[in-house]
Amino acid sequence: MEIIHLSAECYPVAKVGGLGDVVGALPKYQNKLGHVAKVVMPAYNSKFLYENEFETVYDGWVKVASTNYQARILREKTNKLGFDIFLVHVAGLFDRGGVYGYGDDTERFIAFQVATLDWIAQWEHRPDVIHVHDHHAGLIPFMVSNCDQYRHLNQVPTVLTIHNAQYQGQFGWDKLLYLPPFDLINTSKLDWNSAINPLASAIKCAWRVTTVSPSYLEEISHVANGLESLLSQERGKSIGVLNGIDTEVWNPQKDKMIVKGYTARTIESGKKANKEELCRVFNLDSTKPLYTFIGRLVGEKGADLLPDIFYNALAQSNGDINILVLGSGDPQVEDRLSEITHRYPGNYNAYIGYNEALSHQIYAGADFLLMPSRVEPCGLNQMYALRYGTIPIVRRIGGLKDTVIDIGDGGFGICHDQTSVWDVGHAIGRAYELYLDQNKVKEIRKYMMSIDHSWDNSAQQYIDIYQM
Ligand code: ADP
């Protein structure tokens, strides 16, 4: 099958969170199964763009409202990612460093989608599937089936994957003319709560809808930022497929970003070396248990509670624990998390910002990884933690519920029910007790490293969905 993925992120070209990881891995594994999966994404000003060679496969114009933008689609020449990657350059809209958060994001992502379809519409053949990811590509299923200029694509199946239903990309009806012409009788397919809502439109128009874990599909009918009833209505065509991880990128044996590679057999010496280096860099004591957090500092991740959770844990432990945070997001949370370093130097540190290499070093060097998420569609951090022999401490929600089993239930992680200071504090206490039993910790680490969360299985599930 020829599968075209459309996404705003794809690792290693551009990554803000899990979406980038998934779109950077799933196509590679689909190709390994004998299919031809390709990725189309915007051409941000990224290192990838300047360090690689490209050929132009499309040169044209894209009209958004009354402005004509020059559009060019570039293919990376060597297929080095394990799949063909196409970057959509739209002059004036994507030649910037960031991925999201601009005042003209609506125009940017409409231009991305229209330029991509204009290009595909010129092909002599049709792809077997167009697979769109999140709201940035969410207008595609509507446009393919309703816009006059793409009429001959309307039999191409479209699949939407919802990585996070909190973000929907809504904009006002005053921007209706930003879209290519279509029969106005179909406007209801774009509408949700009196706005044009790309995610809602994709849920309505895509042939199939998937969520990134089975539990998230159950939860999303109750918590989906206003889309609950729509998702319940469309439940019949929806399926939860658990994300995998790219075991080539996340491989503790071969990882070049960590100081010492290790396998399940050499895990104790490997983790020790990585922990010592991490503690040296962040002025922590490697003889004490190291609790960590990696992620966006937003309410969904429970980040607003982290400062209180950490103050309590540090006060109660009499200096017997270490905590290290890597993240960025809400400036107030960033400030509060930074302040703790001054109160507890030697036991606590925080790196505020985005740092891919440091994330690998933390998965390798930490004893525990905290994920007190309020919402977690899948969560990849806990799967990376397992692969690197780091014990996850997670709230039982979404994909966390599908991937982590509590030690009390014969599993390997520590689970709690609520995103609350008390619940997480209690879980930290349980982790401390566990840490004192090093034989048990060793046994769990070995077991966690043997768990297979690679994409092999889920990549095939998507193929089955395309063929349904
Ligand atoms: P989400 O997509 O909701 O942010 P996921 O758990 O699905 O959460 O994926 C998060 C990904 O982003 C992981 O690869 C994680 O390591 C990475 N990540 C998050 N914050 C940072 C950061 N500050 N620095 C480096 N990597 C980060």
Automatic annotation (TrEMBL):
Synthesizes alpha-1,4-glucan chains using ADP-glucose. Pathway: Glycan biosynthesis; glycogen biosynthesis. It comes from Pedobacter ureilyticus. It is an enzyme of class 2 (transferase). Residues 3-232 form the Starch synthase catalytic domain. Residues 275-421 form the Glycosyl transferase family domain. Gene3D superfamilies: Glycogen Phosphorylase B. One of its GO terms (molecular function) is alpha-1,4-glucan glucosyltransferase (ADP-glucose donor) activity. NCBIfam families: glgA. ADP-alpha-D-glucose binds at K15. The keyword Transferase applies. SUPFAM superfamilies: UDP-Glycosyltransferase/glycogen phosphorylase (SSF53756). Belongs to the glycosyltransferase 1 family. Bacterial/plant glycogen synthase subfamily. Keywords: Glycogen biosynthesis, Glycosyltransferase, Transferase. The lineage of its organism: Bacteria, Pseudomonadati, Bacteroidota, Sphingobacteriia, Sphingobacteriales. This is Glycogen synthase. The keyword Glycosyltransferase applies.
